[in-house]
Design a protein that fits this description.
5-stranded mixed β-sheet, homodimer, 437 residues, Rossmann fold, alpha+beta, 9-stranded mixed β-sheet, BirA Bifunctional Protein, domain 2, 32% helix, 23 strands
Chain lengths: 437, 437
């Protein structure tokens, strides 16, 4: 993509009203624009990141056998009245009335709707286990939306739902999602720690939040110093095997949010404990028959007897992750994207666009990278070099290639790693060789 | 995908309330489920088709230089009050109030919002031409939603918006989209005819509907008998060249919807005219400065003088297309998917799942097709053969491979083309050879 034609309205100055880093950088890098309080439009650069995150989430859901569907944003209030949540949910539920005076709502989550789908079609234990998920916009009418996409009102969530015949199988489904979540975050370059959590308005007996560490995070978290040394994620986990020992080993390592941490009874010494801040990027729940009881979703078991299905639900904040990743990965100059979610792989800066040699080399690099499937953002704008380099640092692509007349005289360009800041002068062939292998 | 694990709740009988073919087949093939009047959940098979259509639309938008963004579903009413449409739009506009009592609405279209994005960031003719699009759920509170996804309330639309300095350039942008639309529909296996149309609530002087022919279509349409002989779509159109002669040649061929067709003044003889039915699958508009005037979106021109930008908007009904394609392509047994939008490429039927040889051959075919990137739906269910074959015809994948013990004795399987119904007996190698080339 050529920056001269690309709609990235970067800002030189810090926008007021943006209190936290990710919000500030997302506005400055032209990734989003506020539409109204807590509601954002995603501009081209922001949407690219959002789509990459969404795709990683999707692949890891598919990998554990969950099937993708898509439920609508607007739901009839009837099912929510049946489950009792229409009254319970409070003012965060966006209620509305259609032209015929029917009560509707903008879904903040979909337990009722998925249970309705289940009960319509599935009647036998032979269809189980079943996990369905969708990636859809949700609305929660936060009283004080803030922190940009981190606590917005309209937000993109992946929510999965599992259906099982009994508790034992339901825990197997829960454990699969537990591992899928760890893999999902790891692929995004994030260090996520599962922590026991309260279930809130979803309900149920067991739930875990997935927290990523970020100094600017919203909540205080506590965890065992050697957590990440003990809990390395094996790439070859047999997802259909017994996952309980693995899940237990994660959970046996101390980690707790402020809500659950009790300094009096913490088993760790002060030296073994790290107190820092974190951001919730996922939450999984096992709630048994809460919704299948209320909505009468049952299947015939092995013995022909009807059982209300055991359910769990599993959320990932897809749009929130864009902000969370920035909170976890930035410096004073801007964003530092992990490779897997970077909007482009390489930023190519033409220092002097009216220099024929610079443009020729840039076009050649652009063409060659395109050929091998690398995504390049090519800064061919007529701007000062300093401003171009500042924009590149702000946008935060993993690699920068800076092509200037001085270097070209000696046959070299500059390759810079955004994360480490280290740069080296390389010939064109050497630069290509770095990426083609 | 193995059908035994896949959530496709097919129905043997015709659902009542489904008046038209596409709605009936989508319900029977387990593609969708009604959530409430005019609002549907997309089940796995339906979602696959929706995503394929979405992706074709996206690629053809990108091909003409439009840039993808994503605007939210919920908009503040303020901009609509500024444009005057808050009062004009009528009861199809889903109005709501947030917890702080602010007037909001679920966007039925996004002219105001995109104009706000434009006016915030773009100040100079040098940023033009610019086309932005998004693919987002919309809501129109139809008084009588019907025909399944064809006239739903919550629907997926691609809407693009072009911004130009003057009329002349705006027409160039319009023409690009005109050609992009023809390409889009052609890739889906559809014969689409652009027809002059009324602008309705979008406004403006010029608009064209894209109509596909289907005997079960909603509107009567009239067109010149040799329309498709004259208007073949060249694959190598230079999208940056002068498209006016090409657009003119399309528009010089007679074609009109019922609204615009005047039998008294039709230039064609009865013999030259075909009267049939059609479905609107796209609508493009040039409306000049209607919204840029109202919302004061201007850029400085070459001479430094401020001009309100000239705009157009361009809609494709993405979810509607799923139904429309079925209306245009089915037989009495079920859907006949065009290859480009088929949910899977091949349906593989194991006639006898407890026959070791049948299963072995099926697994081998499945594996080999998977290897070369073909998508296979493998019917490994314990069901009667007749029922399996009926389901395959209903689901409508382009190719069926039927593996039974009788054929395998002679070393052959049956390859059936869903569209023509023709079938042939082939060895495994021959079948693979048909697809690997």
């Amino acid at each position: 993509m050529r920056l001269s034609n690309y709609f990235i309205p970067t800002l030189k100055d810090n926008p007021k009203d943006a209190q936290i880093t990710s919000h500030r950088f997302m506005l400055r890098a032209g990734m989003i624009q506020q539409a109204s309080a807590g509601i954002y439009s995603w501009l081209p650069l922001g949407l690219r990141v959002l789509k990459k995150i969404e795709q990683i989430v999707r692949e890891e859901q598919n990998a554990v056998g969950a099937q993708e569907i898509l439920m609508p944003t607007i739901q009839s209030a009837d099912l929510w009245k049946e489950s009792g949540r229409y009254d319970d949910y409070g003012k965060e539920l966006l209620r509305l009335t259609d032209r015929h005076g029917r009560d509707m709502l903008y879904g903040p989550t979909n337990e009722e709707q998925i249970t309705e789908i289940f009960r319509t079609h599935l009647k036998s234990y032979r269809s189980l286990p079943l996990s369905l998920y969708h990636i859809q916009w949700k609305f929660r009418d936060e009283v004080r939306p803030r922190f940009g996409v981190m606590r917005g009102r309209e937000f993109l969530m992946k929510d999965a739902y599992s259906f099982d015949l009994n508790y034992e199988n339901a825990i197997k489904s829960y454990n699969k999602m537990f591992i899928a979540y760890l893999k999902t975050y790891a692929r995004m370059g994030l260090k996520a720690i599962p922590m026991a959590a309260d279930s809130g308005p979803i309900g149920g007996d067991m739930s875990h939040e997935f927290i990523i560490l970020a100094e600017t995070g919203e909540s205080e978290v506590y965890y065992q110093k050697n957590w990440f040394d003990i809990n390395t994620l094996d790439k070859d986990i047999d997802i259909n095997g017994d996952l309980q020992p693995l899940v237990d080993s994660y959970l046996s390592c101390y980690a707790a949010t402020d809500e659950k941490h009790d300094p009096e009874n913490c088993p760790l010494t002060e030296e073994e404990l790290i107190a820092t801040r974190g951001i919730e990027v996922g939450h999984i729940f096992y709630f048994g028959a809460k919704y299948s009881d209320a909505l009468n979703a049952s299947v015939a078991g092995y013995d022909g007897v009807e059982n209300h299905v055991h359910m769990g639900s599993y959320g990932v904040g897809v749009s929130r992750l864009v902000g969370a990743i920035i909170e976890a990965s930035h410096d004073e100059k801007g964003i530092v994207w992990p490779e897997a979610v970077a909007p482009f792989d390489i930023g190519l800066v033409n220092v002097k666009i009216d220099n024929a040699k610079c443009s020729e080399i840039c076009h050649e690099l652009y063409r060659r990278f395109h050929q091998i499937g690398l995504e390049v953002l090519y800064d061919d704008r007529d701007e000062r070099t300093g401003s171009k380099l500042a924009d590149m640092d702000l946008i935060g692509l993993p690699w920068q290639i800076i092509v200037g007349p001085r270097g070209l005289k000696s046959g070299v360009v500059e390759l810079k790693n955004r994360k480490t800041g280290s740069s080296e002068e390389l010939t064109i062939d050497e630069v290509l060789g770095k990426f083609i292998n």
